Task: inverse folding
């Protein structure tokens, strides 16, 4: 039987894209948020069943009765809070099936340890176009909705220019999320100009000018990031400093 009722924790950047795609396809969603801004945005987007609660409260989570839903999905933008919510739910409801969204291989491991039944790694999704992580139709639709054009998400190839702040940097040392893009993979010119490697492969790589990187994100954010590659200074690192 296909999933009809879905309880979604989080209506930030990732949650909004995924939830709107599922709503368009006729699924019944209830959004759970803690931030007033995200809660109001969910209401405005048509999720009239949305609720705003203190997610650190076991009593509030128990009142939601998540076991009455066909699927529970955790999509908090803050990876640490996403792990916390997953852990809280799995502790309160040991038999609950939880799908958690991750944007890094490290977070995926933490979510599995926290009790997530299934973890959807956005890097893995964007790289491999996975259409069957779960045996339920909603999983396929959830993944497709995230990467297809109706969510505003796209891919872009970019060559690392000479003098770029990326030159000489290890992939793990660059905070791509600060620029609102996700690094999917790259072509290492020093190895094979025709060999594309997904970042999920886990190999440590030092970027050099001439390397081709493939990023995923909103089209406008991708274009802005491509322009910023010509800068010698990492603006995000400079701001944090």
Result:
């Amino acid at each position: 039987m296909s999933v009809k009722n879905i309880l979604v924790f989080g209506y930030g950047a990732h949650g909004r894209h995924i939830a709107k795609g599922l709503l368009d396809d006729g699924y019944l969603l209830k959004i759970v948020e803690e931030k007033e801004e995200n809660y109001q945005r969910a209401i405005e987007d048509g999720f009239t069943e949305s609720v705003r609660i203190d997610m650190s409260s076991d009593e509030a989570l128990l009142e939601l009765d998540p076991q009455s839903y066909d699927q529970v999905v955790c999509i908090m933008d803050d990876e640490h809070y996403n792990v916390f919510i997953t852990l809280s739910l799995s502790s309160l409801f040991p038999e609950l099936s939880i799908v958690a969204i991750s944007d890094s291989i490290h977070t995926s491991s933490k979510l599995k340890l926290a009790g997530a039944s299934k973890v959807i790694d956005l890097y893995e999704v964007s790289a491999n176009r996975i259409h069957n992580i779960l045996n339920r139709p909603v999983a396929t639709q959830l993944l497709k909705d995230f990467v297809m054009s109706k969510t505003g998400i796209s891919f872009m190839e970019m060559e690392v220019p000479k003098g770029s702040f990326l030159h000489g940097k290890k992939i793990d040392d660059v905070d791509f999320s600060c620029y609102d893009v996700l690094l999917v993979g790259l072509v290492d010119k020093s190895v094979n100009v025709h060999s594309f490697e997904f970042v999920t492969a886990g190999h440590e790589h030092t970027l050099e000018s001439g390397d081709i990187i493939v990023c995923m994100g909103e089209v406008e954010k991708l274009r802005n990031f491509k322009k910023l590659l010509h800068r010698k200074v990492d603006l995000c690192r400079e701001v944090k400093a």
